[in-house]
Specification:
Blueprint: H1 9-14, H2 30-34, E1 40-44, H3 50-58, E2 63-68, H4 71-82, E3 90-94, E4 109-115, H5 133-140, E5 143-153, H6 156-168, E6 171-177, H7 193-200, E7 206-212
Parallel strand pairs: 1-2, 1-4, 2-3, 4-5
Antiparallel strand pairs: 5-7, 6-7
The structure holds S-adenosylmethionine (SAM).
S-adenosylmethionine binds near residues 46, 47, 97, 193 and 195.
């Protein structure tokens, strides 16, 4: 999702109290930042933020951090965040998740959500996919050993690629469905913006939950 360049987006983000700007200095200090020991859940590529803001509303005892690469998109999430100003358990970072190990210390993250991640269909861009071996290694370096990554997409090729990537690395699938909305897992499901759009077009939604192999 890349919206057209919005004049003033960067300035507005720079002035927002809901965005952490010195994210690398927070590494290992996120519990201090939130002033509690509650678990930390992150969404990578949160887009306009509908999903993670709803997660924060439903789960006041979890801290949520939404990561988004583009200012123009983050600005939309900020508009929604401002309407929920009573929430104290959610902040945003504008960054490319490639550098996520600079922002979180080992064992600091309890859960990661990847929702409708960019598919990067060309082979030469496979390393950019958020379920590639490079990203799984990055997650290993910041997550607790038994922490879970939840991944949803309507893109069957990306989902098939992700199954292979999990199996080829030191990870395992603990939950999987190729039709989330007609599965037992739908009851707890929070729809993302892309999920609403693509399920509205009749696409089935794939979902997997994975974790590092437990030895
Ligand atoms: N998760 C949202 C949803 O389901 O409605 C948005 C999905 S959209 C297809 C993917 C989003 O991920 C875009 O906003 C894009 O800018 C962001 N994104 C892609 N790669 C990223 C990366 N490496 N780091 C941070 N954000 C990224």
């Amino acid at each position: 999702m890349r919206l057209r360049n919005i004049p003033g987006a960067r300035e507005e983000i720079a002035a927002s109290p809901y965005v952490v700007h010195d994210e690398e200095s927070m590494k290992g200090k996120w519990h201090e930042f939130f002033e509690n020991d509650n678990p930390i859940h992150i969404e990578i590529g949160m887009g306009k933020g509908t999903f993670i803001i709803e997660c924060a509303k439903r789960n006041p005892d979890i801290n949520f951090i939404g990561i988004e690469k583009y200012s123009s998109v983050l600005l939309r999430a900020l508009e929604k965040r401002e309407e929920e100003s009573e929430l104290s358990n959610i902040v945003f970072i504008r960054m490319d998740a490639e550098y996520i190990e600079n922002v979180f210390a080992p064992d600091e993250v309890d859960n990661i959500y990847l929702n409708f991640s960019d598919p990067w269909p060309k082979d030469r861009n496979a390393k950019r996919r958020l379920t590639s071996d490079r990203f799984l290694k990055r997650y290993t370096n910041i997550m607790k050993k038994d922490a879970v990554v939840t991944f949803k997409t309507d893109n069957n090729d990306l989902f098939d690629y992700s199954i292979e990537s999990v199996n080829e690395n030191d990870w395992e699938i603990i939950v999987m469905t190729r039709d989330l909305h007609n599965s037992e897992y739908n009851e707890e499901n929070i729809m993302t913006e892309y999920e609403k759009k693509f399920s509205g077009l009749g696409h089935k939604i794939n979902m997997m939950q994975i974790r590092q192999k437990q030895y």
